[in-house]
Amino acid sequence: MKKLPEVNESFEELYRMLIAPIRSKLLLTSIELKVFDQLSEPRSAEAVAEALGTHPENTRLFLDGLAASDLVVKQDGLYQNTPVAQTFLVENTPTFLGPMLTITAQTFFALDDLPKLVKEGPPPPSPEADMGSEETWAQFASVVANGERAGIARQAPEIVSGLPEFPSFTKMLDLGGGPGLIGIAIVAAHPSMKGVIFDRPAIIKVAETFIKEYKMEDRMDVLGGDFNHDPIGEEYDLIWASSALSLAKDDMDSLTKKIYDALNPGGVFLVLHEGLTYERTKPDDMVLSMMPMALTGQDMWFDQGFIADSMLRVGFKSVRSRTLDTDWGPMDLDIGRKA
């Protein structure tokens, strides 16, 4: 009699990986159909189908899938948003992440040709995928604004206000500041400090709209340019950069030296960025999210310690680093101090 093989492992994780795309498809379709807008209060599948003009039975099955994904709760036949869905997936709220999640998912297009990419390597650069266009950058800044508002813009003031130098700060720079909400939040946490948002010319127009929205015109300014080539200002006590320095990776020391020179004596440079570890295989959130772009020849992510080492090379007297939990996954915070 032939015996069954001895198996000491479970393939549960493999199966969960297999069905994971179903969860993301449910999420993205819900955003497209504005399902979560219907579920701030408990509603039946029939009522949702009538409001959306969708097929009643398939709407019920779809809502059951959202419940299985913990995006809605189902009780007595009625569906309602979970707190996460209510906070981030209802339109016309300041923390609505629908456009950001949708555009992020669109960057995964490369995975459709994954076997070809693995066999043949990256394709030639495509003008349609030009991330250098001003219009593309401005659109991206507008889309990520709510992500900042819901995430890092809430953490950053806590980080910066914990610095011993914080009370003495008079001027800060948010380098590559995008829509500007992080810089706005940091400045708002200080009684008198003023701030500058530096980014591409099209992006700072987006930042200006948020400066007006938060009534910070008297304390915030903007400066447009390319930080790899253009002046970034001077006499800063604090320079902050978060997920913004990838385009300087090939000549990091030049930008870090420019930052060093722009700081006052005793100034602080704070960088919040990914830091890949375990031979660039962890954190898994970072590695997997970067995979589509990396496979197409755009590997712009930093190893842990890359930026900190650059700080030391250009003259910062001390550098301290720690890892923070963020909504994007673990990220490294490097703090460089100028003598």
Tell me about this structure:
- The chain has 2 domains: 14-88, Winged helix-like DNA-binding domain superfamily/Winged helix DNA-binding domain (Arc Repressor Mutant, subunit A), CATH 1.10.10; 134-337, Vaccinia Virus protein VP39 (Rossmann fold), CATH 3.40.50.
- Helix 2 (45-52) packs across helix 3 and helix 8 runs parallel beside helix 9 (181-188).
- It is built from 13 helices and 10 strands.
- The longest helix has 22 residues, at 12-33.
- It is an alpha/beta fold and 339 residues long.
- GO terms for molecular function: O-methyltransferase activity; protein dimerization activity.
Write the layout of secondary structure elements.
Layout: H1 12-33, E1 43-44, H2 45-52, H3 56-68, E2 72-75, E3 78-81, H4 83-88, H5 98-106, H6 114-120, H7 134-150, H8 152-161, E4 171-175, H9 181-188, E5 194-199, H10 201-213, E6 220-224, E7 236-242, H11 252-262, E8 263-273, H12 284-295, H13 306-314, E9 318-326, E10 329-337
Parallel strand pairs: 4-5, 4-7, 5-6, 7-8
Antiparallel strand pairs: 1-3, 2-3, 8-10, 9-10
Helix pairs in contact: 2-3, 7-10, 8-9, 11-13
Domain O-methyltransferase C-terminal: 165-293
Protein name: Methyltransferase
Domain O-methyltransferase dimerisation: 22-90
